[in-house]
Amino acid sequence: MDLPVVLVLCLCCLLLISLWKQSSGKGKLPPGPTPLPILGNILQLDVKDISKSVSNLSKVYGPVFTLYFGMNPLVVLHGYEAVKEALIDLGEEFSGRGSCPVIQRASKGYGVIFSNGKIWKETRRFSLMTLRDFGMGKRSMEDRVQQEACCLVEELRKTDGLPCDPTFILGCAPCNVICSIIFQNRFDYKDQIFLDLMERLNENARILGSPWIQLCSSFPALIDYVPGKHKKFFENYACMKSYVLEKTREHQASLDMNNPRDFIDCFLTKMEQEKHNQELEYTVENLAHTVLDLFAAGTETTSTTLRYGLLLLLKHPEITAGVVRYHCPNVISRMVHKVWHPRIHVPSISEAVHLAASLPLVLNVFFFITFQFIFICSFQGTGILTSLTSVLYDDKEFPNPEVFDPGHFLDESGNFRKSDHFMAFSTGKRICVGEGLARMELFLFLTTILQNFTLKSVVDPKDLDTTPVVNGLLSVPPFYQLCFIPV
């Protein structure tokens, strides 16, 4: 049979399958824009800013509607009421993590972020317990973060007040905090292994935010047969995993189960205790992927928010002065820190986190459920796309939501106001494991920087663009430079 005939037959089969899948879902899924065969709704979306496309479509189809990414349907949840009902009121039913083919291929269903079922529940429970044992939310963790803040200040002094891009330095600090928990030791900022890990992590974050990965998610067959950025993602992931496995072997050789030194020791101890368990959640493979999840999550989102926070403070020097005056009172002894406490809230820092929203969309999965009077049924589990941006930028809760205004988190008396719409760390069963640590780091790193430096923009603050750069499912601050002038 001629090759053209074979290609035509294959294309016809794909069209028939696509049409069958889309027609079989009608009546079971919420309405949405009409999908094209095979392509779905991908031509109706801006793959560089899916969040904005979702927001525009919600004005036509309401807070719950269906999009097809290729031949795969996703139910979109837009707005506070829909997101709250799903992730909080029906948290257990919506606790599954939707599939991202590239990440699934790398993680093999292990770890704490993209795993599901019993592996996810057990790994998450263990990770939370272990992080708390190592001080998350306690004074001992505060001391650890403050020590890293001192190192950060010394590194910033080396810039000699000259213009610099803060991206790398602001990534090193939170990365070292999580490394001290995982590997026991922090790295010197010039350590070559550290530099390599950071570069691979940053590159993978850029790749995940690219339209190419969105295309791979819509058409998973591309992963196996087409060259592209996903190949580099796999290479970086394998190198980072290799380093974790090497550290694991070192820990196994010197393990004292009665005196665990770090997260790896705790996991290895649990492995020994559960070695007769046939279900085997505690394996070296799961350990490696869990460590990589904590390493990535403990570095990327916090450093991105720090970067965005400094940009907003550069843009609004009058607010910076207020933060310094209120939260950094010790001008003589520069390294005496404002003490962190979970009940201490900083409106300006909360507003920076609110605007940063580095993960505007979250992918989950659910089965057989009545949601907002719509019965949704899928034997394989229907994916949902949760728009956190629609909650964080709700103009009813936050007037002029795109404007930097710490007043969004103040009540009429000028006191801090907690908002249920503040879902920067997600919410429900899948809320960020390290939320407490991230909040502490943001408070201590930013106040320590403001305590020791005057921030100077290289351009007129009025000309600074603070509009986040959205790449696919990720949001990052635009590139900028600034000067750290010692005070």
Automatic annotation (TrEMBL):
Keywords: Endoplasmic reticulum, Heme, Iron, Membrane, Metal-binding, Microsome, Monooxygenase, Oxidoreductase, Signal. It is an enzyme of class 1 (oxidoreductase). Pfam families: p450. Heme binds at residue 432. Its cofactor is heme. InterPro entries: Cyt_P450, Cyt_P450_CS, Cyt_P450_E_grp-I, Cyt_P450_sf, Cytochrome_P450_fam2. Belongs to the cytochrome P450 family. This is unspecific monooxygenase. It comes from Bos mutus (wild yak).
